[in-house]
Amino acid sequence: MKPFVLLATRAEDLPADEEYALFLRYTGLDEGSLRRVRLESEAMPDFDLDELSGIFVGGGPFNASDPPEKKSAVQHRVEAEFAALLDRVVARDFPFLGACYGVGTVGAYLGATIDRTYTEPISVVPVTLTEGGASDPLLAGMPRTFEAFVGHKEAISWLPERAVLLASSPTCPVQMFRVGRNVYATQFHPELDVEGITTRIHAYASHGYFAADELQLTLDAVRRAPVSHPSRMLGTFVERYAR
Q1: Minimum mean pLDDT range among 80-84, 93-97, 207-211, 239-243
Q2: Is 223:127 a contact under the CB 8 Å cutoff?
C-alpha cells in the first residue's frame, strides 16, 4: 500500500506525539503506512502525489485570520507551503482530510471568510449533518447528529459556493465541508478521545483558549457527553483511498 501522510504543526512534543498516536489508532495504520511530518520544525517535502494514498492534517496553534504582523516566520512558511500543496491537491482532487487546521488551510485557500465570529470554547458539541453530509460516503453510517470535540479561536463565517457544506453545530455553522469529491476539512476533531483532549487542555492552558481559573470547568466540559462517532471517519478515509 502507498503510504498516507500526517502533516502536523504542534511544537509541544507530548500533544504532538499523542496526536500521531491517535491518528494511528483510529486509521488502523502503522508508522510505516502513516508518515508524520512536523512542519513546525521542518519544511514540507515536495510530495509526489502519485506515491501517496492520501494526506491528513492535524490541528495546531496557527490562526489563519491573525494579522500578518502577528504571524511568526514559521507560520508564514507553513501557510505558503500549504497553499502550494493545495494547488496540486485541489486540481487533482487528491484525497485530503484536514482536522481543525484543515479549516484554516483549505478555507483560506478557497477564499472563505475566516474570523472570530463563531469561536467555540473547548467542549463537546452536537454536530448535525446537512443533506450533503448525510449522503457523503466518508460519513456513511454516521448518525445524523453526533457529539464531537471542539475548541477553536477562529472559524469560517462564509463558505464559497464551490465547497459543499457537510455539517454544522448550533454555535458554528461550518463544522465540515468538501471540495470536489475527495478534499475534506473539519472544524471538529475526529481524531480525539477524552484522554487526548485532556492532554491538550493541560498543554495549552496558557494559550488563551480559556481563563486561568477555568481549567477544571474546561476539563468537565469535555466529559459532559460521550464522544464515539467522529473517529470512524478516519478509518473510512483509509478504506476509501488506500491504494
Answers
A1: 207-211
A2: no
Single out the residue of 14, 49, 51, 55 nearest to residue 37, CA to CA.
55
pTM for this structure? 0.96
Phi, psi of 73 (to 5 degrees): -60, -35
What is the CATH classification number for the domain harbouring 112?
3.40.50.880
Task: Give the count of beta carbons closer than 10 Å to the beta carbon of residue 62.
Answer: 21
| pLDDT tens digits for range 31-57 | 999 999 999 999 999 999 999 999 999
- The range of the structural domain enclosing residue 26 comes to 4-241
Look up cell 494579522; give the residue. 67
DSSP 175: E
Q: Extract the C-alpha cell encoding 114.
A: 475566516
Segment 19-27 mean pLDDT: 98
- pLDDT of 60 > 90? The answer is no
| Mutual angle of helices 232-241 and 13-27, in 10-degree steps | 60
Instruction: Tell me if 1 sits within 8 A of 212, measured CB to CB.
Output: no
| CB-CB contact of 113 with 156 (8 Å) | yes
How many structural domains are present in the chain?
1
**DSSP assignment, residue 64?**
T
Whole-number Å distance between alpha carbons of 98 and 108: 12
Distance between CA atoms of 13 and 189, rounded to whole angstroms?
19
**Residue 13 near residue 41 (C-beta atoms within 8 A):** no
Cell of 223: 466529559
